[in-house]
Design goal:
Layout (H helix, E strand, L loop, with lengths): L2 H25 L4 H8 L3 H14 L2 E7 L12 E5 L5 E7 L3 E7 L5 E8 L6 H19 L4 E8 L23 H9 L3 E5 H12 L8 E6 L3 E7 L2 E3 L29 H5 L1 H8 L9 H9 L3 H25 L3 E5 L6 H14 L2 H6 L1 E4 L6 H20 L4
Parallel strand pairs: 3-6, 6-7, 8-11, 11-12
Antiparallel strand pairs: 1-2, 3-4, 4-5, 8-9, 9-10
Helix pairs in contact: 1-2, 1-3, 1-13, 2-3, 6-13, 10-11
Bound molecules: zinc ion.
The site of zinc ion has 6 residues, from loops.
Length: 395
Amino acid sequence: MSPSEVGALARLRATNRRAVMRALTQHGPSSRADLARRTGLSPTTVSGIVRDLLADGVLSQQDERGRPHKGGSGRPPRLLTLSAQRGAVAGIDIGHRHVRVAVADHVGRIAHELERRVDSDERGPRTMDVACELLDEALGAADAGALTAVGLSVPAPIDRRSARISTGILPGWRGVVPVEDLAARVNVPVTADNDANLGALAEVHHGAARRSQHVVYLKLASGVGAGLVIGRQVFRGATGHAGEIGHVRVQEHGTVCRCGSRGCLETEVSVPRLIELLQPAYDLPLDVDTVRALERDGDAGVRRVLEDAGATVGRVVADLCNAVNPSLVVVGGPFGGSTALHRGLQAALDRYAQPDIAHAVSIVPGELGTEAQVRGAIALALAGLIQQRDAAPIG
Ligand SMILES: [Zn+2]
């Protein structure tokens, strides 16, 4: 073989290895037949790759047997899993009002998790200090081995080329490049993405969208955004800003937004805005928990406000559905399980999405709740590790 043929073969092998590892990251323990089906590789190719990965210690074979084949004849297949004995990864979720850190092993099992309240919007550098303090504390408590990679979730658009946060949205982060800042402090690779994309990634790997190919994940919290999943991959667009629906203008003469425009979706339906709208009608001080309890008790005012919010955001989500044709809209954030919100969303999809598209889509609550972003950040860190292994020289 010529040197160029050898090179091409090595690249093909690396691509195939990565496909197998990605399938295991996404679907968990799998048989060789599962891997062949999910990667589209031939059973012989999969067997060869699995043999190499087992020899390298990247995969382990579970003692526990999988379920028998249909019909019950023959030996059940042995399940393969990514090895857990290769140090720790961390997920860091920076929200508008909190920092959450989770340390996990190399198959994504969380060993320790911590959260602290902090006003991250105003103070980028201080927030990074808090994140690092929590990370040290969590690593100490988890006893999960050396840190090998970090995934970071930020509550604003982040440019996938420069890794800079949009400071039009978060002015307190001017001059801070969180990926570089963190990588310099922890001395391991750091990858970052926005909260909606990572919520989408987590729901695809571990939550409501685990069996879906094409998904719109809606994050309705202090900010509003969407993560688009196409063929089980998060679609980020040219610069990482795909799905940024928070600043779509929905009220011509609405409230002035932090982005400089007015009447943005985020100023109309963010969770703080909904609570502010409801508060004058109630004697007790409202927060997320009291609003959810009032909805369960059938409170007419709460139901009305949440249903209207669903309709407002649904008008924008309907356009996204027309573009993406998803089978699922996953609603994340504290009101993700609100039936009134879902009713409003459904009405807007029925009205504004193309009928065949509206018919094909189901609206479901996120299953991971406030864990979604940190779980997504861990998945991102693990995906980064797979890419590094792939880029390493091949013997
Ligand atoms: Zn705006």
